[in-house]
Give the backbone structure.
Amino acid sequence: MSTGTRMSQPTSGGAFPVQRIRDDFPVLNQRVNGQPLVYLDNASTAQKPRVVIDTLSRYYAEDNANIHRAIHTLAERATQAYERTRSKVREFINAADSREIIFVRGTTEGINLAAQSYARSVLTEGDEIIVSAMEHHSNIVPWQLVCQQVGARLRVIPVDDDGELLVDEYRRLLSERTKLVALAHVSNVLGTINPVKQMIEMAHSHGAPVLLDGAQAVPHLRVDVRDLDCDFYAFSSHKLYGPTGVGALYGKADLLEEMPPYQGGGEMIASVTFEKTQYNVLPYKFEAGTPNIAGVVGLGAAIDYVQQVGLSAAGGYEHELLDYATGVLAAIPGLQIIGTAREKASVISFVIDGIHAHDLGTILDQHGVAIRAGHHCAMPLMQRFGVPATARASFAFYNTREEVDALARAVDAAIEVFG
Ligand SMILES: *Cc1c(COP(=O)(O)O)cnc(C)c1O
């Protein structure tokens, strides 16, 4: 054993009621390959508490109907449940108005909406969009597409060896050509919490609006879009303990009012003739077709659940786990952590000398430990750090120190196999 014995304090003794929380997540209570499941792939998708699962099945069992065509009782109930979630999202991110909350399939669709509706209609040849070197492909490719369409150019904020954005380089990139800045609030690979408030202020001083990719932020931090003063904010339900296939895009009302529809179809119109179509008001202008009604209702239950756990208590607990895991992993010879920013959420990427991340992931799975191995949809960032892939352990508020120990034991076992 390269790392000796690890004697962690049982987490149940602390103030944060992790054992009770674990009981809310049925999927955690199982064995995988003969070992208790240790689920550390939360940055890919989080598990769902029973209340979310029950909300989905209750919705289908009792209320299912199409929304906004409320002529009968079920349609009325479905519409109310759907719109209640819009209010919950508004409150959750402290938006000023529910009209600023657009339901989409997830972060990816939210960013594509902003790119194709906002950027495509506003940008022209020679304009620039600034992103960072730590973006998820979802916050790169939609901007590349719009750049090709309008003849604009993508500029990239570099990252230092710790995984922090070089804010001085960003300052140099900003100019009157900058028409939009799109940034990860929290990196899905490095865990870095970016100084977005300051960066938004800098963009605004050049007249450029800012979109934040909040996929990894909302599960860990209290997000206040008005305090941040961001212009768009996108996140996914499934990383926030809610169902897949749904998410939200926040946009400032004055921007959304000016933007053309993203997709055409039912629900986004006020009236249609073959000569002219009048669009619906916000937010319906951007919600063409029958949405993921059950998913939206489930997202509402997830937000209620997260609020009940308490994001600041959960964030503090996750931070302790992060510190503990960082210490335990860093002590393993040959293991290098990628991403050592001062401000981090509970995500740890690492590489081990002589072991490919995929082989490591396979061995860990044999020990019941689920991590992610690969490029994490951030190939430019892998290039920046000169690695083809990393292993990534990402922690939710239901994870424990004992699970961190199980991860470390499984890593030790992998090193014995390959080392
Ligand atoms: C997961 C993730 C996305 C994409 O989210 P989807 O739910 O797949 O649309 C975008 N950005 C970051 C930082 C992510 O972690």
Summary: The chain is about 40% helix and 15% strand.
